[in-house]
Specification:
Layout: E1 5-7, H1 8-13, H2 18-24, E2 32-35, E3 38-40, H3 48-59, E4 64-66, H4 67-73, E5 85-89, E6 101-105, E7 113-115, E8 118-120, H5 123-133, H6 137-149, H7 155-164, H8 171-181
Helix pairs in contact: 4-5, 5-6, 5-7, 6-8, 7-8
């Protein structure tokens, strides 16, 4: 268990009965079911960190946290957080998105990096996954500029990732990146 988040399976393995789990997860109970099979053991609403942990636990070891949450874990903090944790999953994985979870199937998985027991997309991929979903041109520009200023990745790596990945949603990030680099 990390950050007060664990799985139902781990609780059962440690000797907690399913009845006890269900009872403690009832409205007003001390535990909260965050996602199917994932439970928050601390009182109150989950923090962003706990939601990221829950997303990683729910989607399993083959998934990767991406987007702004991955960038935060890579050390970039002044970015506003989106409403949902973005996770890359394998194309044959059939999990469903939930309130705070955005799942994206991908056949072109980036190499994983691990920080604080979280599997993360590379900074270039995480940046572009966030950029493809940013609708506001100024926020898109600020996102790309922040990543380049923090030296998490280079403009060349971002352009290479844009060229290799899906063309869907790539036009605005490509234009913003060219404006930033003067190309």
């Amino acid at each position: 268990m990390r950050d007060g988040v664990t799985s139902t399976a781990d609780l059962v393995k440690s000797g907690v009965s399913r009845y006890t789990i269900d009872t403690r997860c009832r409205p007003g109970g001390p535990w909260l079911r965050l996602l199917p099979g994932v439970i928050l053991l601390t009182p109150g609403l989950p923090t962003r960190r706990q939601r990221v942990r829950a997303a990683a636990l729910y989607t399993g070891p083959d998934s990767l946290i991406t987007g702004v949450d991955a960038l935060h874990s890579h050390g970039l903090h002044p970015l506003p957080l989106p409403s949902r944790v973005h996770v890359l999953q394998r194309p044959n994985q059939r999990l469903n998105s939930h309130d705070f979870l955005l799942l994206e199937r991908t056949a072109r998985r980036p190499p994983a990096t691990t920080k604080d027991d979280l599997r993360l997309a590379t900074p270039a991929r995480a940046t572009l996954d966030a950029a493809r979903r940013e609708q506001h041109p100024l926020r898109l520009h600020q996102l790309l500029a922040a990543v380049l200023r923090a030296e998490l990745t280079t403009a060349a790596e971002l352009l290479e990732e844009l060229d290799a990945g899906s063309k869907r949603g790539a036009s605005a990030p490509r234009t913003a990146l060219r404006m930033l680099t003067g190309q």
